[in-house]
Amino acid sequence: MTEVVISVLLLMGTFFVFSSSLGILRFPDVYSRLHAATKSATLGVSGVMLAAFLYFLFKENMVSGKLILGILFVLLTAPVSGHMISRSAYRTGVPLSDRTIKDELEKRYKDETS
Known about the structure:
- The protein is mainly alpha-helical.
- The chain is built from four helices and no strands.
- The chain has helices at residues 2-26, 30-59, 65-91, 105-113.
- The longest helix has 30 residues, at 30-59.
- The chain is elongated, with a radius of gyration of 18 Å.
């Protein structure tokens, strides 16, 4: 049973990392690429690291604190860094895609600059 759970976590992690790389290649602008990179890569890396943690826990009878800390670090830092990069890109004037429908930050930053 543990092999099945570990295999499913590895496959899910691999799927998310693969979909993240596809999103980086296919999405039209910086903002959607950052979304793909942070969302999918975070889930993918966390899934693979959780599978490794469970493998060491059940097969080797060893608790790996480094893997737990790695999972927490990725879950906390990747979304925040992606958000900060996209905010700085917006503030420096990186254009949105032509297909963007709504820009909710436009009014806020126009009010601050005027």
